[in-house]
Amino acid sequence: MAEPKENVLMEKIVSLCKRRGFVFQSSEIYGGINGFWDYGPLGAELKRNVKELWWTSMTRMRDDVVGLEATIIMAPQIWKASGHVDTFSDPMCDCLYSNKRFRADQIEPQSGTAYYYAGARDAAAGRQVDDVFAVLLPPGKPVQSARNLATQFYNKRGVTAVELLGERAEAVENSTRFNPDNGSLLTEPRPFNLMLQTYVGPIQSSENVAYLRPETAQAIFAQFKNVHETSRQKVPFGIGQVGKAFRNEVTPRNFTFRSREFEQMELEFFIKPDEAVEAIHGAVAVPTVPGHPGEPQPNWGWQMWHRYWVEERVRFYESIGLSRETLGFHIQTTEELAHYARATTDILFKFPFSKRDAAGNVVGDELEGIAARSDFDLSQHERFSGKSMGVFDEDLRTGWGKLEDAKKASLSKRYYDARLNYLMRVGVDAAKAQVDAKEDAEGLAKGQYIPHVIEPSAGVDRLILALIANAFTEITDPDDKGKSETRVMMRFHPRVAPIKVAILPLLKNKPELVSKARSIFEALRPLMNAYFDEAGSIGRRYARQDEAGTPFCVTVDFDTLGEKPELLNTVTLRHRDDGRQERLAIDQLIPWLMERVRCV
RNA sequence: GCGAGCGUAGCUCAGCCUGGUAGAGCGUCACCUUGCCAAGGUGAAUGUCGAGGGUUCGAAUCCCUUCGCUCGCUCCA
């Protein structure tokens, strides 16, 4: 049930986004385009900050992650290998009577007698429609109920006094052409392709169809070999990427939350298969207590790595102002998981439009999913490209040599089973699958394996929306005349705030104040996004900055110029959230601010 | 794609039923004023009333089509 109050809040947020220049509708002057959004001046800064923070904390601050920037259009075979060509194009049917939509492959087969109608006529009104309609009746049901449904169908098409035309009965066995709920005929199955398509080269033909990537991850898998060989990284290590992705969503909804063009921040973190970890270390460490498992250890298996990345990502959200209380978690059930995934934990944010569960709690909507994807992706690319995606692991070869024969046999068997399971599921012929799985198991004994992967995949635009919703605060207090006024404050964490500091001369008509403030502004602007404002009363300017979410304001007054000699070259530093003021020397300003706004 | 609601200034909205000069508040800009939390004064700009078509002497208003937004259905690797 949609809470009206929450819709109002969402409307206020959307309105503020436009008014202050966070988010605009794309192509607005031409009436807009569904599912596409632009970032205005403040939004662009906010988004840059978020991506910069992710990149810095995920790649530059880590020894074990490197970056990649791949193209949006890639060889179409990539999307065959990844499964997107198949899974993104389910055929759909609509019920002609109720317009309810079905996935063609999920309709229960029905049997009975189908009554077809060629159309309907209203002789008195001189109207006739020739739309074909049909109703499937289970055995024994009178034909009149089919006629009733057909009459209603033609009523909806503007025929009032319905005279049914061309009734024809036909026995039907196990048909999926009819709505199981009401027997109405369905439309022909129509393919739904959720990938945006284009053509590479000037001639538009089926041979040069290409897709705008529906996720950034596949480029990482496709370039895994190159990165591994050139970066001097050894498994476990990760490859991160930030970039645009595109999906032809059926229904873009909830402001920027589900857009057709969006940006992702994805990490593919490659790890050893558990069999290799066990061969090297004797045993695989698994999570035993809740919470962050600490610094990565060589004996971690996929479960520890998965837990580690979930907790790392939560820490990231906390570091930019999204507390654990504003987040939610969803651990995907076995039914929800893709067949190759071992576990997926979604990190949710409680948006104003988020639904409540049966118990009345706000669940939240997905910001990021952390998936343990086994070795599925690299294996698929190995099969489709014919290029080996395996790595050689010196530690594994050494470790394997020291194992007792029984241990070797049991690890080999487990690895063989896992590989066979994968090969069979993707449809490899049983005999060939057994041969290949045996080869893989022999490879393991020589130190070879295809890395497994943990994938933390976050949506930038969703995170921006979460930060905006989280920051949005209405403050109501009485003005001088006692009339209560409501103003908006955006409580962004200083690290993500679009404007870090505003420099304000106390009065505009005193040139010495203005020029002093201007010189402070010029000193700050190369280091951070600073803003200079001399227009209007000081209170009004503070309020303007509150609405933009600027965490700090610096005011230059007569004491700055030495009216009180002991305060020469000091400024007022005003805090957004509580209005607190403190006096700070100008030469302290840069270190003081940098401490608070720097990335990490 | 279906159903319902909505679309008027940068924002929030009135006007539409009952056709007749396009409005208010807030914000923005300029000038004056200004001594730390949306102060005051004066003045100004801003609209093809979402778009296209129709009815009419005349359409923001009535009718049709279309685009966009919101909600529900559907979809969500």
What does this structure look like?
With 600 residues, the protein is an alpha+beta fold. The chain folds into 4 domains: 8-88 and 197-390 and 450-462, 2-Layer Sandwich (BirA Bifunctional Protein, domain 2); 90-191, no CATH class; 391-449, no CATH class; 480-597, Rossmann fold. It contains 17 helices and 29 strands. The strands form 9 sheets. A 7-stranded mixed sheet has the order 3-15-16-22-19-18-17, sandwiched between helices. Strands 26-25-27-28-29 form a 5-stranded mixed sheet, sandwiched between helices. A hairpin with a 5-residue loop joins strand 23 and strand 24 (484-490). Helix 2 (41-60) packs across helix 14 (460-471), helix 8 packs across helix 11 (394-401) and helix 8 packs antiparallel against helix 12 (405-425). The radius of gyration is 31 Å and the shape is flat. The two termini are 41 Å apart. The mean pLDDT is 89. It binds one RNA strand of 77 nucleotides through helix 1, helix 4, strand 5 and helix 16.
